[in-house]
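Our preliminary data section would be incomplete without showing what the modeling component actually yields. Below, a chain of 498 amino acids is followed by its predicted structure, encoded as tokens that our downstream tools consume directly.
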Amino acid sequence: MTFAQLAKVLLVQACEEHDPDHKFILRYERELPRHGDDPRDRTAVEDPMRAGEARAIERAEHIVDRLTQKHPVFNAAFAALRIKIPVTLLIGCALVGGFLADPIGPAGHINLLNFPLLTLLLWNVVAYIGLLYNMIVPRPSRDRSQPSLLGLVEWLLGLAVKGRLSRLRSDRAQSPDEVQWIAASLASYAAHLLQSSRDLLITHARSLLHAAAAALAIGVMVGLYLRGFSFLYKAGWDSTFMEAEGVHMFLSFLFAPASWLLRIPMPGVEAIVELRGTAKANAAIWIHFWAMTTVLFIVLPRTLLAVTAWLRKTHLVADVYLPSNKPYFRRLLKPYRGKGVLVEVLAYSHRVKEGDDRLLAFLSDAFGVLADIHMGNSVQYGEPAPHFPTDPDRGLCALVLFNVAQAPEETHSEFLEELKSTIRSRGRSNMLLVLLDCEAYAQIDHKRRLKERCQSWMTLVKACGLQALKYRDPSSPPDGELRVLPDCLWPGDFRGAQ
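Predicted structure:
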């Protein structure tokens, strides 16, 4: 999954969560149309979660297309959430800032114990200690509520995103409720995206901060050397608490790696004694020591950390995944988990072909590609309800298919009541669905007679405490059956239940 695909999925999530009554996104608009045999369904058994993720992405793209057509503001939302930081400009500013800092000043006097690069080095040491702490201490044991540099960066990014989204307006919104829904959806979208991409944003921020720190140190050193060609820098030191021996020990420890690499011996204690007081000795050797120390302990580590963070960021971008542990996605991916629902199609007093592709596609769309659909079961007039197999790991949906060409009778009511008792005894996650097949009757009668016969069947089914679904009704809109199906499941829609 790409980051752009994740953004679309999360946008749809936010819009649906703020529209539980299907007021702004209708039921049929949320269903992904499928025509004929979908080859992805054949691979669902081998890799169901991958198939579920692919279907979730396609569904989100389908809904986003409809949303952006009705509300162009959502196009602006995608643009607002693409925060791009010009890396070259950031590093260039750090270089220029370090160059213009002029830490020595016009006097040209360098205090070996108060050298500006010492402050820069100490700051980086503190940063390294913080990074080491983050690596050693497990994340759950840390209090994320405590302020940190990375948390501050994340907060600033979130603030910037939400600030942009708050200024977006939809000129096509027709009501205050619609405006409120759009605003709430966009705010949730920003929060979901920031939460899902937290590691990605933090890693990207780390790479930029490390690169900027290295560039800042380089800028300071370049400025120091360039000014050294035009000005005379003199070195000295003074201290209230330290003597020459202590200063020599400190500088020898600090500059030991630089002295070894530059093959320049460290001045002895006598030279340190002579430097005490007003700066009077040429500072070239000390500038070389400080420059090499800066390269070893700031430029190289920061560059390595920046490259490492950048590579990890690239890996995270290529490895984006759905937050499938969230309740929304658990419901969405439910058809691709476990064994799926057992669907028993009971054709009452007529026969249904096992190879009825349209009915099979309809039931697959309704109950998921992992549903175990049994077709061709015919119940003769007056026969009792059959016994269904028992499987504790999967729910059951008994689907009764009536032909509206037949007249509804009391026998049909008794059959439905018997099925209700069977479903009720099996407990939760078992459902009953009544379908009225209108196709045959529609071919031999006109619309008014079809409407009257459907009304008679609807009245009988309603008297049993059920709601029938008209199937293959020529007057219904495309995907009309899927739109109303959740309301027709008795005693409730348990397809997404956990």
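The radius of gyration is 36 Å. The longest strand covers residues 372-379. Preliminary results of this kind motivate Aim 1 of the renewal.
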